[in-house]
Amino acid sequence: MLLSLRKRKVLYILLAIFTIFITSDLLSRHKIIDHSKLISDDWSIESLTNKYDFSYLKSFGKSSTFNDEELKSTNEELNKNGYILKPQNVQFKFLNNIDKKGSREEIIDGDNSRYQQLMKLEIGKPQDASLINAPEDVSKYNHANATILILVTNEEITKIGQSIRKFEKSFNSKFQYPYTFLNDQPFNDRFKQRIKKYTGNAPVEFVTIPKELWDKPTNIDEEKESKAMEIMYQHDVAYAKKGSYHNMCRFYSMNFYKVPELAKYKYYWRIEPNVHFYTDIQYDVFKYMESTGKIYGFTISLYDIEESIKTLWPETLHFLNQDDNYKLINPNGGFQFLLEDLQNPNKNKVAGYSTCHFWSNFEIGDMDFYRSKPYDSWVNYLDSTGKFYYERWGDAPIHSIGVSLFADKSKVHWFRDIGYLHDPYYNYGNI
Ligand SMILES: Nc1nc2c(ncn2[C@@H]2O[C@H](COP(=O)(O)OP(=O)(O)OP(=O)(O)O)[C@@H](O)[C@H]2O)c(=O)[nH]1
Ligand SMILES: [Mg+2]
């Protein structure tokens, strides 16, 4: 078909605008960045020491990365236990108890085959407690002191609705634990009315979060913050520039359990928009937590984006090495989970944190643990550094490090039998 000259001109102009728009978007997101250079520059000791004070790390040396032999002590106690917990002398070391050997690829193969073997085992319900099944008459049921906890915006009504539909079918229609909906803005009537269609007969409470628990603290230097956000954005750190995401991470790390309406509860089960529950959970998971004294339950664990938590572990070591803070650590903590450095050594760039964490979009936890002195004084110190904003510390690594340092590892439970999906990862469960 032949177009008139005029029409062709208009078409070319439109095409040019479209091309400029698409390319500039791509360039701004990926292309103009020499990613490898940025990362290696940024990870050099020089560049990090210019930005952060690492003087408290005794073995900190002149080499080019943090994941160096220099950081690995030859101390006998450290080699035997994997930790030293003494005043102003707290150190950790990965012990390699299952004797991983070979190249990184061989170690991954070995880990994979161990994982495959584990996944072939039949999944049963937990065996370490007598489980309480769903009551015949839920109105007479003696519930555990627990709530289903949902932080959500008004705009996410459809997405959270689908999560709750699955959750009710899988668990809560049988037990009717109360829901607590949290939002930094007041929930609107449309949200409140629609949500009740999903929650069935369970009690529901809608809470506006007090500003002092949600808002960015006033002492955050906004110029420093926006520079840091730009660098993280250039390193593809997800949500680096989204201020509300930083608020959310800080809130879930250190403030949600201080919301006045949650003071009456001990346990919470966290749920998010757009997640799926696949299995028919017949026992009361909160009663299971209660009778075993467990404080934290998860379904999925994974590595973190190391650029988002660059100095979380050094800052943690700094805190533990102050005053008598070594006493806060539980000697039977899950330290090794935090230290593994063979399967994915690139992750341990900053003074040895594996970045392994429990994926906190699913959590069944005991809020009294967060309210206790060890966790509380540690997160207060973390907050004083301002790095929920100057970095992008997520609530998942914070909860995971907290639980692994300050709780007995036998109090952490993998709910392997609960089928769960938060895109793109899932826990198979007992389908
Ligand atoms: N009220 C409120 N809720 C928020 C805000 N930002 C995040 N949330 C909630 O906090 C939880 C975590 O946020 P997500 O956006 O799912 O974060 P994520 O799981 O790291 O990222 P995705 O992979 O995109 O799901 C969800 O339940 C959100 O609904 C906010 O600004 N206000
Ligand atoms: Mg999410």
Automatic annotation (TrEMBL):
Query: What is this protein's name?
Result: Mannosyltransferase
GO-annotated cellular components: Golgi apparatus; membrane
Which keywords accompany this UniProt record?
Glycosyltransferase, Signal-anchor, Transferase, Transmembrane
Membrane topology according to the record: Single-pass type II membrane protein
Q: Which GO terms describe its biological process?
A: cell wall mannoprotein biosynthetic process; protein N-linked glycosylation; protein O-linked glycosylation
Q: Which family does it belong to?
A: Belongs to the glycosyltransferase 15 family.
The entry's localization annotation reads:
Membrane
| Catalytic residues, chain numbering | 363 (nucleophile)
Q: From the UniProt record, which GO molecular function terms apply?
A: alpha-1,2-mannosyltransferase activity
